[in-house]
Amino acid sequence: MKSSILTMNLKLLLLVLSGLILKESITAQCDYLTPRYNFKVEKKILYGILPDYQNAMDSLFVDVYTPIGAAEVSKPLVIWAFGGGFFQGKREDFAAVCEELAKRGFVTATIDYRLGFDGPYAGLNPPFAYDAAEILRAGYRGATDMKGAIRFLKGKHLEYGIDLDRIWIGGASAGAIVALNAAFLDKDSEKPKETGAITPIANKQRPDLGPINGLLNLNGYDDKVQGVFNIFGALIDTSSISAEDRIAVFSYHQENDPVVPCLAKTPYYQIPFISSNYPIVYGSCMINDRFKHMGLDPNYYETWIYSGNQHATHDEAAVINYMIEQAKPFLCKTITAVGDISLVDAFVSPNPAYHSIQIQFTTGDCNYSIIDISGNVIQKDKLHENHFINIANLHAGLYFIKLQNNTQSKTLRWMKL
Fold first, then answer.
1. Distance between CA atoms of 58 and 13, rounded to whole angstroms?
2. Are 89 and 151 in contact (CB under 8 A)?
3. How far apart are CA 285 and CA 270, in angstroms?
4. At what angle do helices 316-331 and 95-103 cross, to 10 degrees?
5. Residue 158 belongs to what H/E stretch?
6. How far is CA 226 from the centre of its chain?
7. Nearest partner of 85 among 194, 173, 179, 183, judged by Cα
């Protein structure tokens, strides 16, 4: 009898240890801070051709970086847009960041977007602007180009191993303005009037720049994203952020940035001769306040306001790591969506169990699958609130139960005795 009890206790200990080892393995798969993979890159992939600010056709390219040997079949994607005031910069500016994130298990991309705007008169070129409309039109072209790039890469999600539920966009300076406005300008009513057909500049026409979602790659995929990495960027208007967007935004901005303000000011606000022809923009400080005043879930936003006066990062690696760390609950799929039952606090009771288990959560129904330690699905069904699941016929051992509703999933570990 004593020997039988000892054998049972040893088996139980081994099962617990195997569960802990498996848990560590699962946790490791959700570590996006540690470089552990090689990567490959496919450069200069054409994703669109559109007229630029001079109405000349501009070819837009994307470079895609993918990890080699990553554990995940479907990986998170981050698309970056470079900075440069809408008149300079190049997609290769984010190559090093794309390489680093690909080593950590992301699919990453860096894109072209249309550059350029007219100065006030011949010989006085950007950053001087003819009027505020030129800046708004440049930002709008960039945002709609980003939307076209999102749809393009979503259309290739099988080729690149992209998880359509974990699409992120980001950028620095003008690139962050492109990303933020691509994410939040999503209603026809939010289209700036300056981006319609307006007064020409001399003999150069300024035609309507098209619908809010752009014209590129209308392939059946949407341009929705899970979140934005905003490095000293801004929005045209924070009222474009609404409660139903459910888009995470993680930002970095120096408090007294002289180019893109952290507060609500014109770019280059310290140089009146330049800033007088620019629109007011709403920087990271104002975006953070908008989220806070709306009472949105604090998991969805965080801003590192650095005490400085540079239009730069004080430590690029630290900023990138900060943003990835903030995004971890989304990347690891532990954030609860609105409109469904919350699975965040779900747990198995009793655990260990002999004859039946019950899933304790808030309200509502969901689907469940019981998975053995080899990854085989051995039982699945619809799970109703407070419903007991009969496990009497299962062999003793470690199991997982995956819960799934329309927008969430959670996997719980439990033991059959």
1. 65
2. no
3. 18
4. 50
5. helix 157-160
6. 4
7. 173
- What's the whole-model pTM score? 0.77
Tokens representing 192 are: 């700036």
Strand partners, 245: none
| Burial of 293 (C-beta count, 10 Å sphere; 0-12/13-18/19+) | exposed
Instruction: Specify whether the CB–CB gap between 337 and 326 falls below 8 A.
Output: no
What residue ranges of the chain have pLDDT lower than 70?
A: 1-29, 335-345, 361-364, 385-386, 406-408
For residue 87, count CB atoms less than 10 angstroms from its CB and return exposed for 0-12, middle for 13-18, buried for 19 or more: middle
Plot region of 89 (φ>0 → left; ψ -120 to 50 → alpha; else → beta): left
Q: Minimal CA–CA distance to 34: which of 100, 108, 104, 107? A: 104
Contact by Cβ (8 Å): 170, 231: yes
Q: Interhelix angle for 132-154 vs 174-184, to 10°?
A: 70
Q: Indicate the DSSP class of residue 395.
A: P
Sequence-separated (6 or more) residues with CB below 8 Å from residue 151: 216, 217, 218, 219, 221, 222, 223
The SS3 call for residue 99 is helix
How many helices (H) and strands (E) the chain has is answered by: 8, 20
User: pLDDT per residue over 321-353, tens digit each?
Assistant: 999 999 999 999 876 544 444 566 678 888 888
Q: Which amino acid is at 50?
A: L
CA distance 303 to 167: 20
How far is 312 from 262, CA to CA, in rounded Å?
12
Write the pLDDT tens digit of every residue in 267-304: 999 999 999 999 999 999 999 999 999 888 888 999 99
Tell me what pLDDT residue 170 has: 98
Distance of alpha carbon 21 from alpha carbon 324, whole angstroms: 25
Q: What is the DSSP string of 234-298?
A: EES-GGG--GGG--EEEEEEETT-SSS-SSEE-TTTT-HHHHTTS--EEEHHHHHHHHHHTT--G
Beta bridge partners of 170: 80, 229
Residues with Cβ < 8 Å from 182, sequence gap 6 or more? Answer: 142, 143, 144, 146, 147, 150, 169, 223, 225
pLDDT, position 334: 74
